[in-house]
Design a protein that fits this description.
heterotrimer, A alpha+beta (571), B alpha/beta (286), C alpha/beta (331), A: 571 residues, alpha+beta, FAD/NAD(P)-binding domain, C: 331 residues, alpha/beta, Rossmann fold, nine-stranded mixed beta sheet, five-stranded parallel beta sheet, 9 helices, 17 strands
């Protein structure tokens, strides 16, 4: 019997008042905290009589350490970090400045380099970074300024009072697999906050709660996502230069799937590579981790990795929906930042700089809210306006229809993209509609039994142990660890559906789209199809793919006990 | 006769108090406990050798040495039972402070940080000497360490510290009960055997892992920890107490295992016979 | 006068602790490499009879160190007694097995003598006249060669199984036994140990098991674990499992081997129906001998197995149990 995580009922919860609670210690959340701190310092320096305290400003981070759950390619556009911390290049841990880019279109055995690098992918002036390291460094700065970061604590539930968000409830600790309190049980706190800021990254669980509760998605395109599966490699000296950037499109994907790969040269002979697969592919048997393994076998990549060693693995989803999928980002007592809101430029494949900028703008609004002691939608709505009049909108406006253009396949997508580029993002109409990714998934009955041209993307990778790896071996290198004795945090609302309909209709795609082997169908003679859904929750790398891609939308990812998760050192 | 008895009694008591061994404390309900903690590389972290191959590269994630977390938990439970003070100490660079902060957040009262990168390279003997020097002005009833560290695995620092301080000690302790004469501890032995030992205070105990469920730090605990005293001790302050290491790691390397897999074939009964033959004569496990 | 190596033998309930023979083997090996003289010491009551047993091995002399204060074992008494012996007969190197008891007193003894212990060694090297001791660090991820940085006395303890007890060479004749009486003053012993007792452990500590029979998915159903249990019992070992078995509740969590369970390095690890996923391998690859039974000839477990049996474990295990029982009954 699977017992799913939910807040323990009937316990008295410790109450803690807060001025601002920021859920999520990633680039958006930390930039927000840092900017808020700067504003408070500035104010306090000029107003000896009305001092603001940082005592009641908190960042909640579910990882055991700042940065541990942060994963990205990554390339940093320094624009917003320069605004936040002028001169940051001197101290921040940056791997290398981008020196050259190349974009390839791949077929199974050959490659075609695009003669001109498309403007969005031109990265001169940007930096190859490890997001994990950058966030660690930012976290240090936040702590130095006196803002408390609670690591190992997740935001489990939003607290509401009517149409107001009044704070966050943290995770219950010390609950066993059956949902009972262990001897070291600690109930989650009710953090009663004037302002609650959600910076949970893509497909945030509290953000999902908020959007559902206030029907925030009603006039918007549904958010669409891709999942990035990444490996960090140590390669022989000279293979890839620090600052070298390669993008690929095409193989191993077919025209039916959206996605592509990156290869970035870091320092110390470290190469970051990964494949992003749009979570709107038609064949439920597709396995994004397998896609990465197929990609590595292409001569271009295999040659780069030859003799190297894979040192880390991870996966994370990312929001592709663009401007039209961003919900309202402020309301009574709440604001949403970064990937949680969907501030990601899918053409440039960059979101960190937008996350940071959104954090800064939210901080400015939050400070106004604190000064006026008013965190109603009227005041916090300023954040929405700031975003709309900032370079965040300017940048995202130009690519507002990009991903939607690809919903009919690659060729159509390229045509639309071309049109959009010469019309400032408009293309054929101002707002292209979109369908949620999972709605693209076809039933097995409609697909060729052998997979057809997509066959090489379907099902688990076997791995040769040197260049390619099976999922479990890759997973081991994510360093993921959780308290084993706790309820399952992948809340499946109807396990019967898994065992009866899904097995037949889609063939249990959870086994394929989860990059961490969390979902397994095990033999069970008592089930109508002889199979039963089984979970390995402690494998979870917190990528949220399941919450996004499940065709029946019956999976809700909630944070497991704080402190657990992957260890994305250097990622 | 009664009066004579009465008058003798006080002087008898006085005399026995004076004659009692130096270390017999006047009975006190309050326990002052020092917990020695170490920060070690995270258990599953991929480790790499540094250029000299005499140590690892330090750019990894760190965590508290797991046995020390159990030592801390035991100390906090004793404090809750008997009232008193729990002080935590560690020797290591700035990053090691995290271990102390977590301990304070869980309920320790004070922390001492021997803050210098040089402490990482000290052997158990010098580490014990540094600790002894740092606490020379304190009066602890008990000193706990974890039974060994996850990185070195020597299991020596606690025992050496006891010898330096001249205190009794016991190792691999599962249970501690305070009584009037001192403490009664339960020692774990090999092969499922245990033993109770009565000991006077003050004493050093190395604590077995897994004896209790570790408590979680709470939000309030973390906030309060910021205001708890954390005394920094520089290398210079204890320099005179420590000396050159008594042992030296010449080199670290990845253990090479030359494995030849031998296939055992045949029918099941043949396989059984061949295998048992190996178990008996080659591997000597039967 | 050549330097001496002194092996301090451990006794349990009047009998020699088997692991001490391994230390004798180690001592003989080091003596052969360095040309030093090998001696042994037995500490405690009934030291004399045990010393006679030890004297049958190839060494120069055995000391029987006696004092009524040595029973029961306390670190104060042992450290005091050995300090007296080592001061009277200073060896270059003192060797002991890395038992719980030795861990309890040898760091104290070494410190009292101004020396140091390299503990839990798995081997030694003698290169260019320098003696270094090899030990595992970082939970077996690395091996370290450690040397003494200061003059004698040197102390080293060896891990269980690092040397073979049956390889301790017998001497041509019995070595001389010298009784050494030590004085342990009143007040030296501060601990008062009570009777040793056995107790069903609440948690299974597989790290102490010498033989482990471990089951994986290949066992198919919970009821089949019974045959693995029988095999473990027949061999005198412990039952363990890979994670899926414990996750399903077929065996308790404390029997789990692997990155989310225990890390073990027993003398013998028998893997039944275990594929060898890396999460499991990291928990047992330090085992001295690994025997794997699996239907799949390509199972990764075979890459680290010393003995590979490709076949159906349900066919192989029952006759194996019978054969083991037969051999054990016969001996």
């Amino acid at each position: 019997m699977l017992i799913f995580r939910k807040p323990i009922a009937g316990v008295e919860r410790p109450q803690m008042p807060a001025d601002v609670v920021i859920v999520g210690g990633g680039p958006a959340g930390l930039a927000c905290a840092l900017r808020l701190s700067q504003l408070i310092d500035q104010h306090n320096a000029a107003h000896a009589d009305s001092q603001f305290s940082k005592e009641n400003i908190y960042v909640l981070e579910k990882a055991r350490e700042i940065g541990q759950h942060c994963l990205s390619g990554a390339l940093l556009d320094p624009r917003s970090l320069r605004e936040l911390l002028p001169g940051f290049e001197k101290e921040a841990p940056l791997d290398a400045e981008v020196t050259k880019e190349a974009v390839y279109f791949l077929t199974e055995k050959s490659k075609f380099k695009l003669p001109i690098t498309p403007p969005p992918l031109r990265d001169h002036g940007n930096y190859v970074i490890s997001l994990n390291r950058l966030v660690k460094w930012l976290g240090g700065k936040v702590e130095e300024t006196g803002i408390t970061i609670f690591t190992g604590f997740a935001g489990a539930e939003l607290l509401f009072d009517g149409d107001r968000v009044t704070g966050v409830q943290t995770d219950d600790k010390g609950v066993d697999k059956e949902g009972r309190q262990k001897s070291n049980f600690e109930p989650g706190y009710d953090l009663n906050a004037k302002i609650t800021i959600l910076a949970e990254g893509p497909r945030g669980s509290l953000t999902k709660q908020l959007i559902a509760k206030f029907d925030l998605a009603k006039d918007r395109n549904p958010q669409t996502y891709g999942v990035g599966v990444k490996e960090l490699w140590e390669v022989p000296s000279g293979r890839v230069a620090p600052g070298e950037v390669i993008y690929t499109m095409g193989w191993p994907l077919t025209t039916k799937e959206y996605g592509g790969a990156w290869i970035y040269g870091g320092k110390d002979n470290i190469v970051s590579l990964g494949f992003v697969t749009g979570l709107d592919y038609p064949d439920p048997r597709l396995d994004p981790q397998r896609v990465l393994q197929e990609f590595k076998q292409h001569p271009l990549v295999a040659g780069l990795l030859e003799g190297g060693k894979m040192i880390r693995y991870g996966a994370k989803s990312m929001p592709y929906g663009g401007w039209w999928a961003i919900p309202p980002v402020a309301g009574n007592g709440w604001m949403i930042l970064g990937d949680s809101a969907g501030f990601l430029n899918s053409a440039r494949l960059k979101g960190i700089h937008l996350a940071i900028k959104s954090g800064m703008l939210a901080a400015e609004t939050a400070f106004e809210g604190l000064k006026k002691d008013d965190s109603s939608a009227a005041v916090l709505g300023q954040y929405q306006k700031k975003v709309e009049s900032s370079w965040i909108k300017a940048e995202l406006w130009k690519v507002r229809n990009l991903h939607q253009g690809f919903e009919q396949g690659m060729y159509a997508g390229l045509v639309h993209t071309g049109l959009q580029m010469i019309t400032g993002g408009r293309g054929l109409r101002n707002r292209y509609p979109a369908r949620a990714g999972h709605e693209h998934m076809r039933k097995l009955a409609e697909l060729p039994a052998d997979g057809g041209p997509e066959a090489h993307l379907l099902g688990p990778a076997k791995g040769d142990g040197k260049l390619t790896f099976d999922k479990l071996t890759d997973l081991y290198h994510s360093g993921t660890k959780h308290e084993e004795d706790q309820p399952a945090h992948l809340v499946i609302h109807d396990t019967n559906l898994c065992n009866t309909r899904c097995v037949k209709e889609f063939g249990s795609p959870c086994q394929n789209f989860c990059p961490a082997n969390v979902y397994e169908m095990v033999d069970d003679a008592t089930q109508p199809n002889g199979k039963r859904i089984s979970l390995n929750p402690s494998n979870c790398v917190h990528c949220k793919t399941c919450d996004i891609a499940d065709p029946y939308q019956i999976i809700t990812w909630v944070p497991p006990e704080g402190g657990g998760g992957p260890n994305y050192d250097g990622m | 006769m009664g009066a004579a008895h009465i008058s003798v009694a006080p002087s008898f008591i006085l005399t026995s108090l004076l004659c009692a061994p130096q270390r017999h404390r006047v009975r006190s309900e309050v326990l002052k406990i020092l917990v020695c903690m170490k920060q070690v590389p995270q258990k599953d972290a991929p480790l790499k050798l540094n250029e000299t191959a005499a140590w690892i590269r330090e750019d990894v994630s760190y965590e508290v040495n797991e046995p020390d977390a159990y030592a801390l938990e035991e100390a906090l439970r004793q404090k809750e039972k008997h009232t008193g003070e729990v002080v935590v100490i560690t020797a290591g660079p700035a990053r090691a402070q995290q271990v102390l902060r977590e301990a304070l957040a869980k309920g320790a009262d004070r922390a001492i940080h021997l803050d210098d990168n040089a402490f990482v390279a000290l052997d158990a003997f010098n580490t014990a000497k540094a600790f002894a020097a740092a606490i020379k002005d304190e009066k602890f009833d008990l000193i706990f360490t974890g039974l060994q560290s996850d990185d070195y695995g020597y299991a020596q620092t606690g025992v050496i510290l006891a010898e330096l301080l001249g205190w009794p000690h016991a190792t691999i302790i599962m249970q501690i009960e305070k009584n009037d004469a001192g403490i009664r501890v339960k020692r774990e032995l090999e092969a499922g055997f245990f033993q109770f030992v009565d000991m006077p205070l003050p004493a050093v105990l190395t604590i077995q892992s897994g004896i209790n469920k570790l408590r979680y730090a709470t939000l309030i605990g973390i906030k309060q920890a910021k205001n708890k005293p954390l005394r920094k001790v520089s290398l210079a302050e204890v320099q005179s107490a420590i000396g050159e290491n008594l042992q030296k790691i010449e080199r670290l390397y990845v253990p090479q295992k030359t494995k030849k897999t031998e296939h055992i074939e045949g029918s099941p009964s043949e396989i059984a016979k061949k295998l048992v033959d190996k178990l008996r004569n080659e591997l000597r496990v039967l | 006068m050549p330097d001496t190596i002194l092996v301090v033998v451990e006794q349990r309930e009047g009998k020699i602790n088997r692991v001490s023979w391994e230390t004798i083997t180690a001592g003989q090996a080091i003596a052969a490499a360095t040309g030093w003289t090998l001696e042994a010491a037995v500490v405690g009551t009934s030291a004399a009879s045990i010393a006679a047993e030890v004297a049958a091995k190839k060494l120069a002399k055995v000391y029987a160190v006696e004092s009524p204060k040595l029973e029961p074992y306390t670190p104060d008494a042992f450290a005091s007694a050995l300090k007296q012996l080592l001061t009277a007969q200073p060896p270059k190197l003192v060797l002991m097995p890395h038992t719980y008891q030795v861990r309890d007193f040898v760091p104290k003894l070494a410190t009292a003598m101004g020396g140091t212990v390299i503990s839990d060694c798995i081997g030694f090297k003698h290169e260019n006249g320098k003696l270094v001791f090899t030990r595992q660090m970082f939970q077996g991820k690395f091996a370290a060669d450690v040397s003494f940085n200061r003059d004698a006395p040197w102390f080293a303890t060896f891990q269980n199984g690092a040397f073979r007890a049956d390889k301790a060479e017998a001497g041509a004749g019995a070595a001389p036994v010298e009784t050494v009486k030590v004085e342990i003053a009143d007040g030296v012993v501060r601990n008062k140990p009570q009777e040793v007792f056995k107790e069903a452990k609440q948690a299974v500590d597989l790290t102490q098991a010498e033989i482990i029979v471990s089951v994986g998915r290949g066992i198919k159903e919970q009821k089949n674990i019974e045959i693995a249990k029988q095999l473990a019992e027949a061999l005198g070992g412990d039952l363990a499992a890979s994670r899926p078995i414990c996750d399903s509740g077929w065996l308790p969590m404390d029997r789990q081997i692997g990155s989310s369970g225990q890390t073990v390095a027993p003398k013998l690890y028998l893997a039944l129906g275990i594929s060898g996923a890396i999460q499991h391998i990291v928990g047992m690859k330090g085992s001295r001998t690994i025997i794997a039974v699996n239907k799949d000839s390509e199972a990764p477990i075979f890459e680290i197995a010393d003995y590979a049996i490709v076949g159906n474990l349900f066919d192989i295990v029952p006759p194996l149990i019978e054969e083991v029982k037969k051999v054990k009954a016969g001996s």
